[in-house]
Structures are given as structure tokens and as C-alpha cells.
Amino acid sequence: MKLSKDKINLIKKHYDLNGYIVVRGLFDKETILSAEKYLWTYIEDNIKNFDKKEVNFTKNGDINSIHNFSKWPWVKKLRDNKNLKKIVNKLIGNQAKNFGAELFAKPAKSGMPAPMHQDNYYWCIDNACALTVWISFGASNKKNGGIYYLKKTHKFGILEHKRSYAPGSSQTLKYQENLKSFKKIYPNLQAGDCVIHHCLSVHGSEKNNSNIPRVGCTLRYIGKNSKIDSIMKMKYEKDLKKHYKKIMR
Ligand SMILES: O=C(O)CCC(=O)C(=O)O
């Protein structure tokens, strides 16, 4: 179904206001089912080709996340969704460029948390003109470690972070007590729904203690004129080295 101009304008209005927006049924369930069916065989066939640092396992040895997942052929198919293209270009405000893809597989019972953070602390985009489309492959909610947001925090600029030593999420907000007055909002998602968040929106996710896996894949975008800020990146990479030194011992 083609999204109307009015609907896209409304999506932008809510995204600008809150720093994230849920888009229900952006992908039909059959598409997501086909993608997920192929996902696990693709991982099995390619596990040796991934950079070790990019793959995180739970204590049970199941895959929790893969941080450079752009080569999965379904990434291109998902990106080609016409409604998605229109929304992303509208939200970014100029022609959007691809900026990678990730898998957050968060298995039942053992799926690991993503500590509270802002994506741009990792990405280091100079004008913070960047976003993530988090696509749900099944149920994602508070019970199974669904992603949460602190509303309107994208308006604060970049906040201080510190090393978290959490596998797959090396950084977390340094002064979380300052954000205690913000309620965590857990979007309740089904297969094919997605949530789009600004790269400065504070967000995270908790452990998956439930019996239901919480699988999602992200598509990331930056503005046509956005660049990586080399000073921000140098600082981040210095921290990242220390993170790996500790967790890969
Ligand atoms: O899927 C998750 O649990 C975390 C995802 C996340 O932090 C992100 O997409 O930036």
C-alpha cells in the first residue's frame, strides 16, 4: 500500500517531536517471514566470514547481535521498499545515504541488554543528520527485551558516555540519573512493524528473560552531506580499543 503525503508528513511531525516514530506494517508479514527463513541459513553459511569483533554471543552460545550485516542479501531488498525510501528521505531532510545494517537477534532467555546510549556517540556524524530504522521480525515489547526510548531526548545534543563493557554496546550514558524523570517507552511491535529513531535519541533495551526471541534488523541512514567527525571518531575508537582489550581477554 502506498503511503499518502499526509501520512508521511504526520510521521515526520511525530519523529521531529519525540525523536522516534513507530510505523506499523511497513513490511508485510510474508516478506518478513521469507527474510527470517533465510536469515539463519545465511548466518550458518557465513559465520566464518564475519569479523569476530562484530559478532556477539549470549552465555548459551547463541547469536545475540551482528554489527556489520550489510552483506545479507535481504538488507538490499528491505531497503528497496518504496514507502521506506519516501519516509527516510523525508525524515533526513535531504537525500539519504545508506550507513550500514545490523542484526539484533536477542534470543529467548539469554538475549543480552543494550545499555542506554545515543547512536551518534558511536557513529560520530558531524551534523547529527542520521537515523535508524529498527525492523521487527516478530513480537518486540517490554517482556522480551524490546527497544525502549526516552522521549524528546534527541533535542539535548550529544551527551557524555562512558565505557559499558557490554558485548556489542561498548558505550553507555555517563549521567543516567539526570534522565530519571523521563519514562522509558517500550513500543509494542509485531513482525513487519518498525520504529525509526533519531541518532541523538536516548534508547536501549533490557535482557530477554522471556520464552520469546526478539529478533530485529536495523537499516541506518545519514544525510547526503553528512560526514564523520574525525575528532569525535578518534575519541570513540580509543575507548573502543580499551573495551575490546577487556572483553576479548
Ligand atoms: O535491538 C536492540 O536491543 C538495541 C538496538 C539499538 O540500540 C540500536 O538500534 O541502536
Describe, in plain words, how this protein is organized in 3D.
With 249 residues, the chain is an alpha+beta fold. It has one domain: q2cbj1_9rhob like domain (Jelly Rolls). It is built from six helices and 13 strands. The protein has helices at residues 5-18, 29-46, 73-79, 82-92, 119-123, 230-247, and strands at 20-23, 55-57, 63-66, 96-104, 114-117, 130-136, 147-150, 161-166, 169-173, 184-185, 194-198, 203-205, 216-223. A seven-stranded antiparallel beta sheet has the order 1-11-6-13-4-3-2. A hairpin with a 2-residue loop joins strand 8 (161-166) and strand 9 (169-173). Helix 1 crosses helix 4. The longest helix is centred in the N-terminal third of the chain and has 18 residues, at 29-46. The radius of gyration is 17 Å and the shape is globular. The mean pLDDT is 94. It binds 2-oxoglutaric acid (AKG).
Produce the secondary structure layout:
Blueprint: H1 5-18, E1 20-23, H2 29-46, E2 55-57, E3 63-66, H3 73-79, H4 82-92, E4 96-104, E5 114-117, H5 119-123, E6 130-136, E7 147-150, E8 161-166, E9 169-173, E10 184-185, E11 194-198, E12 203-205, E13 216-223, H6 230-247
Antiparallel strand pairs: 1-11, 2-3, 3-4, 4-13, 5-12, 6-11, 6-13, 7-10, 7-12, 8-9
Helix pairs in contact: 1-4
The protein binds 2-oxoglutaric acid.
